[in-house]
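Predict the assembly for these two chains.
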Amino acid sequence: MTCEATGSERERVLDRCIDALIEGRSWRDELPPCEQAEELEQLLRVAEDVLAAGHRIPPPSGSAKEQLWRRIVRAAMTVLRPIREGHQQGGAPPRRRAVIAAIGALLM
Amino acid sequence: MELALSPAVPRAHSVVRAKDREVAWLEALYREHTDRVYRYAYALVRDPATAEDVCAEAFVRAWQKRHALRDEDRVVAWLLAITRRLAMESIRSMARRRQFETVIGDEDVPLPFSRGNGGDDARLWRCFGRLSPDQQRVLYLRAIEGLPHDEVARILGRSPGAVRAVQFRALARMRRLLEGTDDL
């Protein structure tokens, strides 16, 4: 394995090392001795930090997810309700009726 | 034949059925991607409560704009783009609020970015926030979610080579930002 040939080879080596990092293996085993090894090591240390910080992001708890879902549905329903009501009454949604009335008034 | 029926009643029913399907679509979207959207929002805004706000708004926005999603295979990239836009709006609005609070002299107000994180993480996420949208998405999916590069390529509609190149540039930029050789 080399990483000296081209930029894309260097990117491949970095990618293999990141795979090792993600899988919990040692990325050093994937890093060939080459001129750019030092640069790649520096980037992999950053990747290690990002991965570790990512693991520290607290996931939303079950109850937080429930609350979020209720918020989302409430917000979605405020959009949905006028449309449903409009169709159930057999006409255009109220908001659209208001727009049509406003346009009509302008044209008069 | 369905077309021969009175248009009013069947149409109203079909609209209700269609809307129920859309709510079911939203629920499926939420079940599958809550953690992803929340974690990406958190990485950008670095505050649990703000990340929840961004997350909720992102799903509502996605639902409102669902017809703009032409390819269901691109749903993750699309959701992450919506999340990022909302996170940026939120950061800008927090910055304006902080500026205002400083002007009126209330400097004891806690900074939203300083809660719940060690200093190192806060700095790291600040640097992450300075990457381009493309670099953020690749680094997030690859290093935070731990997805293989071909999966990231598929999600973002890019070639594996392009993902590797963006990943390289993202880490190089992060390193410069962390070292202070690139402006934060």
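Chain A has two domains: 7-55, 62-107. The mean pLDDT of chain A is 79.
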